[in-house]
């Protein structure tokens, strides 16, 4: 498993600004959390999602590929950091 946080720089009010993901060794999202400018958190796993957040239907690129796009800033985070955001999104 790998865990990542991606900052998405954009001006779209209804889109998330941070994308958190738990990704398996094959590159598929297992769980994810989207964080919006207003602090709202939506989450998704294989059982469904909240808000408009759903798991991706294709494999997730590695951090280098994500960071090759100017609007994204991706970094690896720990499992405990992801779990903290996941718990907060479940409230």
Tally of domains: 1
Question: Rounded to an integer, what's the Rg over CA atoms?
Answer: 12 Å
Order of helices and strands: EEEEEHEH
Low-confidence segments, given as residue ranges, are none
Instruction: Count all strands and give the number.
Output: 6
* C-alpha termini separation: 24 Å
Q: What percentage of residues falls in helices of 4 or more residues? A: 10-25%
Outline: globular
Can you give keywords for this protein?
alpha+beta; 6 strands; globular
Please provide a written account of the structure.
This protein is an alpha+beta fold and 91 residues long. It has helices spanning 63-67, 79-89; strands at residues 2-8, 18-23, 29-35, 41-45, 48-49, 72-76. The protein has a six-stranded antiparallel beta sheet. Strand 3 and strand 4 form a beta hairpin. The longest helix is centred in the last third of the chain and has 11 residues, at 79-89. The radius of gyration is 12 Å and the shape is globular.
Question: Summary?
Answer:
The protein has helices at residues 63-67, 79-89, and strands at 2-8, 18-23, 29-35, 41-45, 48-49, 72-76.
Helix-strand blueprint:
Layout lengths: L1 E7 L9 E6 L5 E7 L5 E5 L2 E2 L13 H5 L4 E5 L2 H11 L2
Antiparallel strand pairs: 1-2, 1-6, 2-3, 3-4, 4-5
